[in-house]
Every structure is written in C-alpha cells, then in structure tokens.
Amino acid sequence: AARRARCGPGQRPVGRGVALPAGPDLRHFLRAAGAGQPGPSPELPPEPGSTPGAPKVYLETYGCQMNVSDTEIAWAILQKNGYARTKQLDEADVVLLVTCSVREKAEQAIWNRLQHLKALKARRPRARAPLRIGILGCMAERLKEEILHREKLVDVVAGPDAYRDLPRLLAVAESGQQAANVLLSLDETYADILPVQTSAGGRTAFVSIMRGCDNMCSYCIVPFTRGRERSRPIASILQEVRMLSDQGVKEVTLLGQNVNSFRDLSEVQFQSVAAPGLSRGFSTVYKAKPGGLRFAHLLDQVSRIDPEMRIRFTSPHPKDFPDEASVLQLIQERHNICKQLHLPAQSGSTRVLEAMRRGYTREAYLELVHHVRDSIPGVSLSSDFIAGFCGETEEDHQQTVSLLREVRYNIGFLFAYSMRQKTRAHHRLQDDVPADVKKRRLEQLIATFREEAARANAALVGQAQLVLVEGPSKRSASELCGRNDGNIKVIFPDAELEDAAECGAPGRAQPGDYVMVKVTSASSQTLRGVPLCRTTLSRAAASH
Question: Containing domain of residue 488, as a range?
C-alpha cells in the first residue's frame, strides 16, 4: 500500500475488489492496507533512549482512514511504554490487527488472516516467548466473545476506546491469560496523545477530530462499534497540525464519522451558542445540539496554520451543510482548502433513503448539490452508494443510476449491501434482495459511475492542474504520481523541471513538491499530463 498504509489520499476499494479513487465517507470503507490484503507495518526509527531487547510489535491496518489514525494512536501509546516497531512479521513478539466491521467481507479478511497467524504461532521456537496476537478496533467491539473463544488463538481484544489500556492488556496476555476491554466511552477522544506517523518522511497525514456517530442510519454498524459522537478540543487538533507542518507534511485530512457536526465543548464561553440549522429539506433522528465551537471555526483555524499545506476533510453528512454556507464559503475563499467535497448519497430513491433513515429526499440532495456547485465553481464531488439495500426495487435502483448520471461525480465508492447485526435494518427490515441481483445492480452502478466520471475528467484535458507529488508511479519508474486539488490521481513523466520562482536550478520533482501539470488525457480514475514547472501552493493560487 502506498504511504501511510492506504490506497491514497481519500481512496477506498469499490465493489468486489474494484478500486476507484475517492473521498471517503468514514461511515464506511477504505481498506487501509489494500483490498483485503494485510498491509506491512512500516519500520520507524527507534525512539531515542529505547530499551535494547524491547518487545517488538507488528501492526496491520484494515478498513477506513479512522483505522489508520487509530493505528498511529495505538503505536504512540505502545512506544511510550517501551515497545519497538518491526515491519518483519517473523520478528514480532506482538501482532496487532486494527480491524473493520462495516461489511461481512471485511471481517472475513481478518478471520482468514488469523489462520495464517495461527500457523506462525505454532511454528514459533520454544526458546522465544509465545507470540501474542491482538484484535483492535470495530471487529473487537462487535465480536469480542467469538474472537476470544474461536480456537483460543487471540490473546488481546481492545475496542476503539480502549487503546490506552493496551499495555495492561498485553501484560496480562504475557502471563498466559486472555485479556479484553471493549468498553465504549462517552468522552474518549485521545486528545492528549500525539499520534506517531506510520511512515517516516510521509507528506500526507490524517488527523482525527472526533469519534463516534449519532446519526443511526439503519444500515450502519458504526454507532455500535465506535459509540456516541464526541469531538476533540480544537486546541489539541491545532497542536497536532502544527507539529505535522513542522515535520514537512504537505496535506492533512481532518477525519471523523461526521466531521461537519463537529462540536468542541471544552471552552465554557461557547457552551450556550445556538445550534446551527440543517440544510433545507434535511432532518435528523436526534434533537439539535446547542453549544460549542463548530466545524467552520475549526476549518478556519486549521487552514491558517500553514499556507503551503493542503487541507481536506472527510466524511461530512449532507444534512450538516447549513444554509448560511460558512464551510462552503471557506472552501471557496481559502487557497489551501481543497475544492473537493464528499456528499454521500447512498441511494437515488427517496423511498430507499427513508428506509435508510438518511434524513433527506432525492430532491433535497440534488438541491444541495446545485448549491455546492454554485458556491464553489469547479468543485470535485465524490459519493457513496449501496446497491441492493433492504426492499430496493428495480425502479429504486434505476433512480440511483439516474442520480449518478445527473450529478456526474468525479469519484465514487460503491458497494453491495451487507446486513450487520445490531443495526436497525437487522431488527426491522428484511435483507430481501438476492445476492445475484445485488451483484448485477452493483455492476451497473460501477459502469455508470465510470462513464460519467470519464466525462467529468475529460473536461480537465488542456487545463493546468496543481499536483502534490506522492512518489513514483506504480507502473513505471520513469513517471511520477500525485493528486490534484480534486483528489484525482495524476500521472506525468519524471523530468527536469524549472522552478516557477526562477530562483533555483532545474531539478526533478520530489515527494511533497507541488508541480503544475498540463492534462493531456483522462480516464474515469486517472489524469495524465506533461509537467510544466515546480511551484508552491501560494504561488499557484496567486497566478489564477
């Protein structure tokens, strides 16, 4: 997996292993370590003063970007408690899998991986301490009993709110007992823990700003595995972003299950502020929440830290773009806030949206799309869609197809519905769409998305796009790969380039550089072009 053990900034796998670039809805999906495959844990330099012979931990990340962030939090806690990091599985004393429960396929990947680790445990030389295996994250929260009792293979189980307890749990496991903590918290945000980046020298980073979700969409397991919504204090978020800026990070993605309902209640003087209104035509299952500093304030403050650092955020909920459009206005005004929005629709049918408890109609959603495009000219849009939800008819499906055509998203995440225990759908609805029908509908949605994304991306041919270089292209060492402001992958030749400031000698672009690229061709997922010059984010904005 590319840097940070993920598919790329804002990417997730789409439908049956088909990976499409996208700006994810964290209520779902990105498989951080690749499409169902375990991701190696990058080696980090040893912590100054670390103890020789310290127990070595190997971490694998599955699921959404929140799990990438959780991996960094868990590693920061373990590092402070004397553990060393290894990228060699055979060297590990502790193997921790950070897991996803959003679909059955995600959980099956973990069960399959555990069978491999069972063999590794059995082969371990008697001269070494027994290998300890831990399951962390959402699957731990959902399936604690089954994980502990199935073949007695797993030693430690820790839910998303129990990472502070990992040193104690591992100590218990060292004595030969199984140990678990899956208690959900009403206030845990890990605000005082500065995550340790999992890639030395990485140029992009995720910053978690809140945890949990209160929306209770009928298909979604997240409220049951990650708990109620709570936000980090803004001061701790700004501290982390400043630290990342000092380390040379050029792009930060603010993470949360529902970022635009962010509400920092840590400062008393803001606790009586009125609740913002919802977007026109939108509703929610919970009462309006007054008080606190909101997402627009956070976004404003974060964007001021470093004019050369791109800011993204994911995932918002469509209902939480209030009519005064302060967030949309910030995106339009600030050159370093990416002109890209994730607007997860899930379905194009009002009837299905009601069954999903999404809190809006097709018409309200389309009105929001038009409002966004009027407010932010040239904005790149991404979305999530579920094929074959409970009770979905062929007519409902065709309405989703038509929504894909009408909106013409640049980026998309599309999945067949997977029933999850504990959800409202599991208790109240029937998973009555046959698997072969789900498969056919998903294939049609993917084909439609690709057609429209290819048309949307073709409109960029002939234009100059500012690209943040990520590194060499996977398919050719003579080409570089990066992403434009809209989060679309751009590939271009690795060549000697002039500096736009004309103050330096020509040179090749490096990861973390901004390069102006003229687009020469486009597909549904990728732009190709010729590099024009190296530049900066501020200079590129001033020239437009």
Answer: 463-543
346 and 416 both lie in a single domain: yes
- What CATH number is given to the structural domain containing 120? 3.40.50.12160
Is 177 in the same domain as 131? Answer: yes
Render each residue's pLDDT in the chain as its tens digit; 544 residues. 233 333 333 333 333 233 333 333 333 333 333 333 334 333 444 444 446 679 999 999 998 889 999 999 999 999 999 999 999 999 999 999 999 998 888 999 999 999 999 999 999 998 899 999 999 999 999 999 999 998 789 999 999 999 999 999 999 999 999 999 999 999 999 999 988 875 545 899 999 999 999 999 999 999 999 999 999 999 999 999 999 999 999 999 999 999 999 999 888 767 767 777 777 788 888 888 887 899 999 999 999 999 999 999 999 999 888 755 689 999 999 999 999 999 999 999 999 999 999 999 999 999 999 999 999 999 999 999 999 999 999 999 999 999 999 999 999 999 999 999 999 999 999 999 999 999 999 999 999 999 999 999 999 999 999 999 999 999 999 999 999 999 999 999 999 998 876 666 788 999 999 999 999 999 999 999 999 999 999 999 988 7
Question: For residue 196, is it within any domain?
Answer: no
Strand 507-508 to 496-497 pairing: antiparallel
Does 163 lie in the same domain as 216?
no
pTM summary value: 0.85
Tokens 């831990």 found at = 134
Looking at 166, 181, 196, which one is the last position of a domain? 181
Residue that has been written with the tokens 């635009």 in this structure: 260
Q: How far is CA 288 from CA 215, 271, 291, 310, in A?
A: 12, 14, 10, 31
Q: Which two tokens stand for residue 50?
A: 């670390």
493 by DSSP, 3-state: which?
strand
Establish if 9 belongs to a structural domain: no
